[in-house]
Inverse folding.
């Protein structure tokens, strides 16, 4: 029997496992597919909410802590696994922002560097952008190459003797004894633990229905595409009208993303492809000269207010949840997992856990 059993091998589940193992706990992680291959793989890797000043304080608290954690986490994983998560701190240019005063006020309150910059400054930063009247500039923003982050986390966990990974192993129910949860059942085996943690992403709500709990977490599809460009064509993240381009060191340039309510359908379509191309080529006109190299879709774990559910599951014992991060799973992962592990191990919490708990009001908000 493990000390902890984690359901879900995305970035939330794997970071939870890493922190528990670092604390000397015996951990099992069960994943329906391969670790790191759902939303954690499909996103863009910006280490900030797109427009952070438009989010609730509960999101800002988690994202601010997580942003500070990523440089050391990326370095640690590179040293331990040889896999580089490619954390890049090149800043972000916000074009055509319609609420700049709100943005600047938020930045002052949070102590974040954010400033108005001139058209000449924008041109100096990114020569491929079309003429603009100026922009907002956040120099400290970073991004991570999320597929490689997932590979590095999986490699590190695989090397830890206190961690057991069960991949291609779909959970079909929980092992109950009265109000206690003692583990999960799968087609292959029954797995038991002193405490179970549900980190199932977009599938968390459906899984918890088997416990007669209605967790308002739903799948929200996002389609993205990527161009292969010469390295350095774009050097930093650029955001305009809710769409963004994210450069990788090898010239791969990601573009995202759509927001679609269509259940668990991950199919891509031509309409989304053309919409994303228009957005990308509106931000960087030179992209019209390059073919689309990749087009894919993932499923975000949507929640009513975008604030994740973190903590014990009401009505049951020995089970906790960390799910519902919506568009910010990667952004919030270091802090949200640290906050839950603090609670599980009886440590002083990183921040006040109250906004993330599964109160009756939050559970019925959907």
């Amino acid at each position: 029997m493990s000390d902890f059993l984690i359901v879900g091998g995305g970035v939330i589940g794997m970071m939870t496992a890493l922190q528990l193992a670092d604390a000397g706990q015996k951990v099992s992680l069960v994943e329906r597919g391969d670790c790191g291959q759902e939303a954690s793989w499909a996103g863009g890797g910006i280490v900030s909410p797109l427009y952070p000043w438009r989010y609730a304080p509960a999101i800002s608290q988690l994202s601010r802590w997580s942003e500070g954690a990523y440089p050391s986490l990326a370095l640690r994983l590179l040293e331990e696994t040889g896999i580089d998560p490619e954390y890049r701190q090149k800043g972000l240019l916000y074009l055509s922002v319609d609420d700049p005063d709100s943005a600047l006020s938020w930045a002052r309150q949070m102590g974040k560097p954010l400033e108005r910059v001139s058209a000449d400054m924008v041109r100096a930063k990114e020569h491929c952008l079309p003429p603009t009247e100026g922009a907002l500039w956040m120099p400290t923003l970073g991004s991570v190459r999320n597929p490689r982050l997932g590979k590095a986390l999986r490699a590190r966990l695989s090397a830890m003797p206190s961690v057991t990974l069960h991949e291609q192993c779909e959970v079909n129910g929980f092992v109950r004894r009265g109000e206690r949860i003692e583990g999960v059942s799968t087609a292959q085996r029954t797995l038991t633990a002193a405490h179970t943690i549900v980190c199932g992403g977009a599938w968390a709500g459906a899984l918890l229905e088997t416990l007669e709990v209605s967790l308002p977490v739903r799948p929200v599809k996002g389609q993205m595409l990527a161009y292969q460009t010469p390295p350095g064509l774009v050097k930093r993240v650029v955001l305009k009208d809710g769409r963004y381009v994210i450069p990788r060191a090898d010239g791969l340039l990601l573009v995202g993303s759509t927001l679609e309510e269509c259940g668990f359908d991950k199919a891509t379509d031509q309409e989304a492809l053309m919409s994303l191309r228009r957005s990308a080529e509106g931000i960087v006109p030179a992209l019209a000269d390059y073919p689309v190299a990749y087009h894919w879709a993932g499923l975000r774990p949507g929640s009513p207010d975008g604030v994740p559910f973190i903590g014990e599951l009401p009505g049951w014992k020995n089970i906790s949840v960390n799910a519902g991060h919506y568009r910010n799973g990667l952004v919030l992962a270091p802090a949200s997992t640290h906050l839950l592990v603090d609670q599980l191990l009886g440590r002083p919490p990183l921040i006040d856990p109250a906004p993330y708990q599964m109160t009756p009001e939050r559970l019925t908000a959907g």
